Amino acid sequence: PAPPALLPYVPRVPPAALPGKLTATTFALERPCCVFDRHANASDAVWLVVAFANASAAFRNPPSRADVPLYEQLPTACSYMTLETAAATYACSAASPAVLRVGGDTVCGGQGGRDPCNGPLPSPGPYRVKFLVMGCHGPKAETRWSDPILLRRGTGGTAVPP
């Protein structure tokens, strides 16, 4: 299959001071609105790839949904995929929240399930993230990797205003 289209979009942490924007186990990302409209159709899914910054270059897009690296594999594979969302959610016409919360699902892990999980991040990172459009025949488009995202230690889950 052809390699996925590389989109010019770079995921980033929102500049606004959101409560709990960066904690010891989670961070927020700007929602990529209108980014995938020309590259995805109604049956496609958009995934968020999370990798340790030093492992992002080694990440290989999975050929199918069955090969998606799961949250539980992060310590050994140094990456996982989460936030599987219908491509339409990111369409220009979609009304949805301006930010995505990464690592916010505390009931993840240890369930032995095969479902992708948006579990708390196990270390401060740094991490890099990208969005990947997956169709029924594999990856169709991807964004660039983000700049490194370093989580805050010892904040107790609250962001301190500047």
Termini separation: 48 Å
Please bin the fraction of helical residues: under 10%
Mean pLDDT: 85
Total domain units: 1
What about the largest sheet? 5 strands, mixed
Estimate the strand proportion.
15-25%
Note poorly predicted spans. 155-162
How many separate helices? 1
Sheet with the most strands: spatial strand order: 1-7-6-3-4
Order of helices and strands: EEEHEEEE
Number of strands: 7
Protein name: UPK3B protein
GO cellular component, one term: membrane
Features:
162 residues; mainly beta; two-stranded antiparallel ribbon; 1 helix; 2% helix; 25% strand; disordered C terminus; UPK3B protein; Uroplakin-3
What does this structure look like?
By secondary structure, this protein is mostly beta strands. It has one domain. Helices cover 2% and strands 25% of the residues. The protein contains 1 helix and 7 strands; from the N terminus they run E-E-E-H-E-E-E-E. The protein has one helix at residues 74-77; strands at residues 5-6, 27-30, 45-52, 79-86, 99-102, 127-135, 138-142. The strands form 2 sheets. It has a 5-stranded mixed β-sheet with strand order 1-7-6-3-4. A two-stranded antiparallel ribbon has the order 2-5. A hairpin with a 2-residue loop joins strand 6 and strand 7 (138-142). The chain starts with a strand and ends in a 20-residue tail after the last strand. Mean pLDDT is 85; it is low at 155-162. InterPro entries: Uroplakin-3. This is UPK3B protein.
